[in-house]
Structures are given as structure tokens and as C-alpha cells.
Amino acid sequence: MAAHQGAGGGVNGPQLTAIAAVAENGVIGDGRGLLWHLPEDFRRFKEVTMGGLLIMGRCTWESIGRALPGRLSVVVTTRPLKVDSNDPVIVCHGLDAVMVTLAEHLDRRWWCVGGGEIYRLLWPFTTDLDITAVHQAPESTVTFPPIDPEQWSEVSRKVGDEFDFVSYTRRDDAAQEALRASLKESGV
Q1: pLDDT score for 5
Q2: CA angle, 130 as apex, 168 and 49 as ends, to 5°?
């Protein structure tokens, strides 16, 4: 990351980006993993998150099955979680611990990678969205928070046959201000 960028990769302040593959009906998975296999999406996920800090819930961690190379994984769980001490993994037992961890890693870009509960937990602090809009509507109860056009502005869209890559940014600074305040409480 360039030295002039601030916390979480933001040039104008802290930045937390939620990245997800989301179906037309908001579904993101089934509680055990993804409902589709999109190699181009996997390649793009690896490319954009490389070097970053990935915040995820225990179920997402277990579905991935390992630490992703070149990234720091932050696993949010209320349960004990056994991880290999050689893996780049930090276990957090709540939002306060996540904020302390972010404050300790200002040099990395911050990504929220799911699942549904973690997206909702971090939604008030999420400044940007990096969405793979999947052209399917499978049935499931694991969903992404609704992207309200009153709160989110579409910045870019790359249209594809099976899915589109879409970027959004918050229309106001509320999430960035909330993130900044939480980081300050954590000692930054």
C-alpha cells in the first residue's frame, strides 16, 4: 500500500470495504459456503484483497478452511477457535476487539468478507462495497444487507454474462466518522 494512504487504505480517512458475491435476491450463501463457482470472481477477490486485512465470521473461516496467502485474517467469533500459530490469523471475540485489531493494522486495506452476521455487525462502519452481482436467485436465509440507493452511490459497473462487478461508496460520511470514532476509542 502506498505510504500516503491512511487507515484501511483510505486516502481521506479510514476505509472499510465489504466485498461479496450477492445474488439478485440478496442471498450470499447457505451457511456452509458459496452457492456458485465463479472462477473469475475468485481471481478478482484474490487480486483486490492481496495484502489486506480480511474480517470474517467463524462460519466463513471454516468454509474457507485455511488462512489465505498474502492476507491477514481476522476471525470474529464468540466461541473458542483453534488456529495454527504459524497462520496469519487473529481471533476477535467482539466488535471492540475488531476495532483494536484495525487500529493495530493501519498499514493494510481493510475488507469485510462475511458472512451475513459479520456484514451486519460492521455495516455501520462500512464505507465502500465491492459487489459481484450474481445473475441468480437461489433460496437461502444467509443474505447481504440491502444496498439502499439513498445511502449508496454506484461508482462503477463491469457487466458480464453470469455476474457484474459493481462498486459503491456511501453517500455521506457517517460510516467513516463512526469508524474513526471507534478507532479513537481503541487508542488511535
Answers
A1: 42
A2: 140
Nearest to 44 by CA among 169, 168, 163: 163
The pTM of this model reads 0.91
Summarised one tens digit per residue, pLDDT across range 72-89 is: 999 999 998 888 878 899
Considering only CA atoms, which of 19, 30, 117 is closest in space to residue 76? 117
Could you tell me which residues come within 8 angstroms of residue 154 by beta carbon, excluding any fewer than 6 positions away?
166, 167, 168
* Pairing relationship of beta strands 110-114 and 53-57 according to DSSP bridges: parallel
Burial of residue 82 (CB within 10 Å: 0-12, 13-18, 19+) is exposed
C-alpha cell at 24: 439478485
Spatial contact of 71 and 88, defined as CB atoms under 8 Å apart: yes
The three grid cell numbers given for residue 62, joined into one nine-digit string? 471454516
Domains and CATH numbers, the chain: 16-27+36-185 (3.40.430.10)
The verdict on whether omega for the bond into residue 116 sits within 30 degrees of 0, i.e. cis, is no
CB 68 within 8 Å of CB 83: no
CB 137 within 8 A of CB 26: no
Q: What is the mean pLDDT of the chain?
A: 91
Q: Which of 25-34, 42-51, 113-122 has the lowest mean pLDDT?
A: 25-34
